[in-house]
Amino acid sequence: MQILPFDYGTFQVRVVEHDGEPWFVLADLCAVLGLTTPARVADRLDQAGVSQAHISSGGQQRLVTIVSEPGMYEVVIRSDKAEAVAFRRWITAEVLPTIRKTGSYGATAALPATYADALRELAATVEQTAALEAKIQIDSPKVSYVDQFVADEDLLLLRTVAKTIGVPEGELREALIARGWIYEETSTRWSEKQQDLVKMVRYSAYSQKRAYFRPVLRHDAPRFKGEVMHTLKVTPQGAEAIARNFKKEDAA
What we know:
About 40% of the residues lie in helices and about 25% in strands. By secondary structure, the protein is of the alpha+beta class. The strands form 3 sheets. It has a 5-stranded antiparallel sheet with strand order 1-2-3-5-4. A two-stranded antiparallel ribbon has the order 6-7. It starts with a strand and ends with a helix.
């Protein structure tokens, strides 16, 4: 199994390839984040994102617990350390993009074989840069805080956040509504399948909490009051805020 070791300050974070995707050695994540019991952390994660792998360490084959990329985000928001935010940004902004681009961290890109290849590569780079700059211009009015652009893969379902902090999803949603973080809208539509009116519910964030949530449009869903329906997802900043502010007794 291929191991990609990354250095984060004085810590080493090992990533292995599992089913074609990067998975993280849980003990390494816990060391960075000050979580002293990796086994207990693993028990509280979505088990679909937890596995075991044999890796070479100290000249021996060791069986270690590894977590998927979504599992890694769950681990990060469990930490109370301020370092958790910087660590998550390092992984999402530097490590994962490099793995996906080169297959390894810090790998040297192959040089163009001919002058024509070099010109084509330069043209592709210019085109990608122009497209990115155009997207930034379009998206910039929508960005509510300077911390990102948060990638779509960084966003979490509310049920994932609720499971992480140990409360039912419905109770957490009610607590967020009660505290004025999000609000609920309802509507009805005619269902051909049920031959009746069915209730539709949409959740949105109040403006002062917009940095914590992002509405993800669902073009394949029935329209809501004439608008495209959306699913309200939680940003990494929002997940950290929820973990700090909402405990089981708060949502009960």
